[in-house]
Design brief:
By secondary structure, this protein is mostly beta strands. The chain has one helix and five strands; from the N terminus they run H-E-E-E-E-E.
């Protein structure tokens, strides 16, 4: 094999061309040469993959939502909580406490409403220290079905 490669040819700037390497004689979908029509598998977010690119599908009974504060709060919408927040480098109020009914929770925020005023407040979870509740919580840890029994 010479300096030009098996099917290549030198271009004007010394780059090797790809003439003849685009699947000679093979026709893909819609008659386009060089395509094989391979469709990658459908992959759900977070699915593990092997080094060859094969997707490892977990059985449906083993696909659990991970335990994050946002998911715990979503399981407890409508419950009243006390939210302890810290705001660094704030000279007016470094720490603040909010009490309200959980209306929604996202990856980076919590929306509560104050019962007395009806005011809605968006709290950023980056400032959240902890939350207390005066009632039992609904909690599902990945791999555990239902709430574990409480002992008091």
């Amino acid at each position: 094999m010479g300096p030009m490669g098996q099917h290549g040819m030198m271009g004007p700037m010394g780059q090797q061309g790809m003439m003849g390497q685009m699947g000679q004689g093979m026709m893909g979908p819609m008659g386009q040469p060089g395509t094989t029509g391979i469709v990658p598998p459908s992959v759900t977010s977070g699915s593990p993959m092997t080094q060859t690119g094969a997707v490892i599908q977990a059985p449906p009974s083993q696909q659990f939502e991970q335990s994050y504060v946002e998911n715990i709060l979503r399981l407890n919408l409508g419950k009243t909580g006390t939210f302890y927040m810290t705001y660094e480098n704030n000279s007016q109020w470094n720490a603040k406490i909010f009490t309200g009914v959980i209306e929604a929770a996202g990856r980076d925020h919590i929306i509560i409403s104050e019962r007395s005023t009806g005011k809605r407040i968006i709290l950023l979870t980056i400032n959240l220290d902890y939350i207390t509740f005066d009632e039992p919580l609904t909690y599902q840890y990945p791999g555990v079905i239902g709430n574990p029994p409480t002992t008091r």
